[in-house]
Amino acid sequence: MDKYISPLVVDTTKKIPYYETAIPSAVPTEDVPFYYIAQDGDRLDSISNLFYKTPDNWWVIAKANNIANGTIAVPGGTKLLIPNV
Fold this sequence. Notes:
The protein is α+β, with helices and mostly antiparallel strands. It has 2 helices and 4 strands.
């Protein structure tokens, strides 16, 4: 699941190329393979790396679990949905 819209967009006023974000309003969870219980010191990016082999999908886990507190730290013992991407 990619969070960027392709192709590259160019700002016509400043002539600066950029990608627009395309974070979906919901992450599909109907085929959730499992839950993960966070350990002390876990962060969303490290959990993403563990399950998706990239830290870049941390936002998928955050979105699926309604985490929007401005931090990627996850308290130990938190039960997280890990959706398929």
